[in-house]
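sorry for the late reply, my laptop died twice this morning and i had to redo everyting from scratch. anyway the thing you sent over, i finally got around to it. pasting the sequence first so we're on the same page, its 167 residues, then the predicted structure underneath. double check i copied it right bc i was rushing
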Amino acid sequence: MRQTSWIATAAALILALYLVYLMTAPKRQTIRPLTEMQVTAMLKQGDEALHRKDLNGIFNLLAPHVKILGVSQDRLRATLARDFQETGPLIATWKNLQFYGGQTSATATFTLMVGEDIPGMEARYFNYPITIILKPVKIPTYFGLFHTTQWRITNVQTNVPVDFEGP
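ok and here's the structure:
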C-alpha cells in the first residue's frame, strides 16, 4: 500500500474508535430542577396538542411505558384516536396551578377542564382536579443510539373515577 492509503486507513480507524467511545462512554448529563414556568409551558403544549388532536404531541409529554390513570398508553391512544374522530374542535383549560418542585421529582396540581367547542353550546367532558408527577426520564434519540434526559409526566392522579372505553 502507498503511504497515503496508510494515512487514510489510520484516520478512518481513529475516527471509528472515537465514535465507539462517544457511544459507549458514560455521560454525565445533569438536569436542572423543573420550574413552574416549564410546567406551565408543558401544560400549554398539551392544550395546543389537544386542540390540534395531535396524539404524538400529547404522548410526547409522557414518559414511555407509564400507565396514566391505570390505563396503558396503547389503550389510551386508541381511545383518544376514536374520540378525536367523533368530536369537533376540543378545548382544554386549566386553572389554580400549584407547583412543588425538586431535583428528582416535581408535582403539579390544577383543575383541568376539557370540552368541545360547539357554537351556542357549552360541552364539558371533564372538569376535575388533576395531579401530575414529573420526573427526569432518559429518552432515546437518533434511533436509540443516544439518550437525553427530559422532564416527563410519570403519573396522573385524580380523585374522580375515570372510565376509559375501548380496546
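Residues 28-157 form a domain with the Nuclear Transport Factor 2; Chain: A, fold (CATH 3.10.450.50).
thats about all i looked at so far, will dig more tmrw
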